[in-house]
Structure formats: C-alpha cells, structure tokens
TrEMBL record:
CDD domains: RT_nLTR_like. Keywords: Nucleotidyltransferase, RNA-directed DNA polymerase, Transferase. Residues 114-305 form the Reverse transcriptase domain. This is Putative RNA-directed DNA polymerase from transposon X-element. PROSITE patterns: RT_POL. It comes from Araneus ventricosus. GO terms for molecular function: RNA-directed DNA polymerase activity. Pfam families: RVT_1 (PF00078). Signal peptide: none annotated. The keyword Ribosomal protein does not apply. The keyword ATP-binding does not apply. The gene is X-elementORF2_887. InterPro entries: DNA/RNA_pol_sf, RdDP_mobile_element, RT_dom.
C-alpha cells in the first residue's frame, strides 16, 4: 500500500481520447490485441507443410500418458514460491498457497496430475490480467508506449513449472538447442555469454584479429510467434506427442484483460505469440527460431570476425 503507482494519463484512442480508467483499459487492450497478431508474411509452401503436419498430428487418437510430477516435488515447489508476486484473475496469492493445509495441497496435486494425464491445460488458467507500465522516455498519451505486465493464476504457474521440467529434460537429452544458446538454458546465464564475448575478443587481440559483433533486436519477438509454426517445430524435433498436446492446449485460446486502477477491459483474444511472463515462453521461442544452420547462427547471432 506504500508503493506509489504512476497514474496513466489520457490516451489517444482510435476514435477519441480516453479519460476514464475504463476507457483507458479498453484503449490499451485494443492496442495489445493488434500486437498479438502475425506479421504480414506469406510462404505458401511452408504454410501448406505446417498445416498438413498439424492435421496429421490432430488425427492421433491415443496419446500415451505423461509422467506425473512427484507429489513431494510439487509440495516443495509450492512451499518455496515467492510471496511478493501479484495474483492472477483468481485472486489466489502465493502467500495463500504456501500456507494451505496438506489436505488442500493433496487436492491441488490431484488437479495437476489430471492435467498431465489428460494433456489438457484448463481454460480459466489461460486468462491473464495485464497491468500496463509506461516505457521510459515514451509518449504517455500513446497506447503503444506501455509495456504489458501479465498477471497469471498462481496454480497455472505451478503446473507450468513441471511442464517446463519435462520439456527441458527432452531438449537436454537430445541436444536440440544450439550450444551457443545462453539466457534461456539452465546454468547458462547472460553473464556467462558476456564472459565468453570478453574471452573471444581478448583472444582476437592476442592474434592481431579485429573482432566485430552483430546484435539483433527482434521487435515484438514473443508477441508474434506463429503458433502453428511452433507446434510444427515441436513435432519435427520429436518432442513426445503427449507433451506436445499439453503445450498446444497451454498456448491455444489465450485471453487477457487490461486492468487500470479498479477497472477492467473486456476480454480480448490473443491470435499469435507465446504468453509474456511465463516460464515456458523463453524455452519455446528458441525452439521456434532454431532452424537456422548452426554455422550461420554462430556468426550472425553471436560474434563474427
């Protein structure tokens, strides 16, 4: 309650100026919905291949059961969740979760196990409450100047952690991600990448080489991921089909509301992109772009001499 929250100024909407919190929330929600769309690019051959592959995948009737998370691991994870995180649409806080009696935790374990058993992520857990935060130095009257901070249901994030654990295990065992990938891999932080860059440049100086760096900033990278293309990549990387089915339901039909003050916008649909603020997205995005030849990736995404 002691935190000072910056008020959002009047916004330039598509047809009029938004003054009330309700109008501001709806204006920003409309702007975000435009962001969560595919880029205007077409490649008929690729689209036909992806569509055919997904149609064949959807014809599969019997999916083997996924390994269910260990109940002890679920309880341990719940007991360690950060109590300072804001709750999602259900209003359940991490502090509530950490103080639940064991009988209630058993019920939650039963729900999570059934999600893995049936490979279905609940609809209500796919709704995000978005809080807009003004980007530094941006025009406060422009709806696109606000960074969307997604608040997701606490139980969805607990379940997602164990989906990510199984996905990471498969990626690691099969060496799917390129070895130069940092930031989205366990024990491979951006700090390690910086150390690698320094060593690379130092080595160049010692051998009288000039070292050049190429940095790419992809606009709306997470927001405009082609979901069908991502599912195709998961299939082509031989991810277990039951895990793909669960991830597909995790990504499908996601919705959001924008909250300003005590006002909420209408429910809006997300047409493209992987959700912001979840653990799975930083893992799924490298899979989506992981088709560039390794040599090209090394020289264009990291360093070139």
């Amino acid at each position: 309650m002691r935190k000072k929250h910056t008020k959002i100024s009047a916004l330039n909407g598509p047809t009029s100026i938004a003054f009330t919190n309700t109008d501001k929330a709806e204006t920003i929600a409309g702007s975000l919905q435009n962001q969560f769309t595919l880029n205007n690019l077409t490649d008929t051959a690729t689209e036909n291949l992806v569509t055919h592959t997904i149609n064949e995948f959807n014809k599969i009737d019997n999916f083997p059961a996924l390994p269910t998370p260990n109940p002890t691991d679920i309880i341990k994870y719940i007991r360690k969740v950060n109590i300072h995180k804001a709750p999602g649409s259900d209003g359940i806080t991490n502090n509530m979760l950490r103080n639940l009696p064991i009988i209630t935790l058993i019920k939650i374990i039963h729900i999570i196990n059934n999600i893995f058993k049936h490979q279905y992520f609940p609809n209500s857990w796919r709704v995000a409450i978005v809080v807009p935060i003004l980007k530094p130095g941006k025009d406060p009257t422009n709806p696109t100047s606000y960074r969307p901070i997604s608040l997701l249901p606490t139980l969805s994030k607990v379940t997602e952690h164990f989906i990510l654990t199984q996905l990471n295990e498969h990626l690691s065992n099969n060496n799917i991600l390129i070895p130069y990938q940092f930031g989205f891999k366990p024990k491979h932080s951006t700090t390690h990448q910086l150390l690698r860059v320094v060593e690379y440049i130092t080595s160049g100086f010692e051998n009288r080489f000039s070292t050049g760096a190429v940095f790419l900033d992809i606009q709306k990278a997470f927001d405009r991921v082609w979901i069908n293309g991502l599912i195709y990549k998961l299939i082509s990387h031989t991810i277990p089909i039951s895990l793909i089915k669960l991830i597909t339901t995790f990504l499908a039909n996601r919705q959001f509301k924008v909250r300003i003050g005590n006002s909420l916008s209408k429910l809006h649909h997300i047409q493209a992109g992987v959700p912001q603020g979840v653990k799975l997205s930083p893992c799924l995005y490298p899979i989506f772009i992981n088709d560039i030849p390794k040599k090209t990736q090394y020289y264009t995404l990291h360093l070139c001499r």
